């Protein structure tokens, strides 16, 4: 209790985040080793991503190159931004915004990836003729099983794409707006009052995020069986894990820091220490996800067999069995 009172009234706990030189000067042996190992992890994550980009450029069909590079780059980019924020605490707002903006694009690209794995828009519509989307799924309508299925048409496919694309576009616009307001002194992540711009912008981003995740979940529920041989289920799991760790975990830690649950340890304020803990966790987590993602996406990208061809093959095999029995 005395320590809590000390940190509460310590003027250094009410100051801004420390400069990079202050972080370096206060590191002890354990801190040096910890920061060095985490920096190495972030560097290895980016090197693995660069190597994967070279592989994708040489081995992957042109229609899938960009989407796979965007999706596989989520974990390395977040790890790199977290490493930069760890060394330069005052840049945390910008590194977090960069990571969040990149992942907003990844949400849209993952939807496109699932469609391209089927063969593109035309192939998807041909395979899904006379079928429908099940829209009673998370994160919006998982508790509404009574919702009717939506027929799969070019229009409904466009609406799904638009639902995810709006997040990629508006997230970038809102990030630029936040930086402009911050430069004018009207935006602060620490200000959670109803009169502050941060609470309204972040709330709006939260709504956009939920709307953008819904089309991806709808598409995954529709194609997961057809793309099971392409490891789409574990790919989707990695995508969801990056989402939970980079968004939900970070939000929980930041809320605890702003409430004072995470103690101030000068030169770190409570909020800066919360950011530091989040960044260190993310570097380790994204490093592991980068290695797993490399295994999942490193394969031969052959088109999946057409449904008509598959049915014809099945008919021929059945006829051969009947002849053998006769």
UniProtKB/TrEMBL annotation:
<feature type="transmembrane region" description="Helical">
    <location>
        <begin position="275"/>
        <end position="297"/>
    </location>
</feature>
<feature type="transmembrane region" description="Helical">
    <location>
        <begin position="241"/>
        <end position="263"/>
    </location>
</feature>
<keyword id="KW-1133">Transmembrane helix</keyword>
<feature type="transmembrane region" description="Helical">
    <location>
        <begin position="164"/>
        <end position="185"/>
    </location>
</feature>
<dbReference type="GO" id="GO:0016020">
    <property type="term" value="C:membrane"/>
</dbReference>
<keyword id="KW-0472">Membrane</keyword>
<keyword id="KW-0812">Transmembrane</keyword>
<dbReference type="Pfam" id="PF03619">
    <property type="entry name" value="Solute_trans_a"/>
</dbReference>
<feature type="transmembrane region" description="Helical">
    <location>
        <begin position="197"/>
        <end position="220"/>
    </location>
</feature>
<feature type="transmembrane region" description="Helical">
    <location>
        <begin position="67"/>
        <end position="88"/>
    </location>
</feature>
<protein>
    <submittedName>
        <fullName>Solute carrier family 51 member A</fullName>
    </submittedName>
</protein>
<dbReference type="InterPro" id="IPR005178">
    <property type="entry name" value="Ostalpha/TMEM184C"/>
</dbReference>
<feature type="transmembrane region" description="Helical">
    <location>
        <begin position="29"/>
        <end position="55"/>
    </location>
</feature>
<feature type="transmembrane region" description="Helical">
    <location>
        <begin position="100"/>
        <end position="119"/>
    </location>
</feature>
